[in-house]
Design brief:
This protein is α+β, with helices and mostly antiparallel strands. The chain has one domain: Gcn5-related N-acetyltransferase (GNAT) (Aminopeptidase), CATH 3.40.630. It is built from 2 helices and 4 strands; from the N terminus they run βββαβα. The chain has a 4-stranded mixed β-sheet with strand order 1-2-3-4, covered by helices on one side. The chain starts with 6 loop residues before the first strand and ends in a 10-residue tail after the last helix. It comes from Grammatophora oceanica. It holds the Pfam family Acetyltransf_1. This is N-acetyltransferase domain-containing protein. GO terms for molecular function: acyltransferase activity, transferring groups other than amino-acyl groups.
Length: 107
């Protein structure tokens, strides 16, 4: 049984401050859970990792992904797991460039 309270949302926000005004812009967000699985034990599962279209290819995804990896390590997770649709070529390229690999295919 999955505990709804275990879902965590993190965001990367750019804050612009000037003498006339200030505003915040969300650069990216990630939703994840720490859970125990029969196959892998304690894991950090990434439900969503989304970068604002205007800010892609600027390293923001890497910052969030590095945070997720470190959070998994500091939480004693054995693995970081995620699913990505077969049609998500850009996502696959991103994850592979960050040391991830395809380990299974779901139907």
């Amino acid at each position: 049984q999955q505990d709804r309270d275990s879902f965590t949302l993190v965001s990367l926000v750019d804050i612009h401050v000037s003498s006339k005004n200030s505003h915040r812009e969300v650069l990216g967000v990630a939703g994840f859970r720490i859970m125990n699985t029969l196959a892998h034990g304690k894991v950090l599962y990434v439900d969503d990792l989304v970068i604002n279209n205007k800010h892609r290819s600027q390293g923001h995804g890497g910052v969030i992904f590095d945070f997720l990896l470190e959070h998994a390590r500091s939480s004693s997770c054995k693995k970081l797991l995620l699913d990505s649709g077969v049609q998500r070529f850009d996502a696959h390229r991103f994850y592979m460039s960050h040391g991830r690999m395809v380990i299974s295919s779901h139907r």
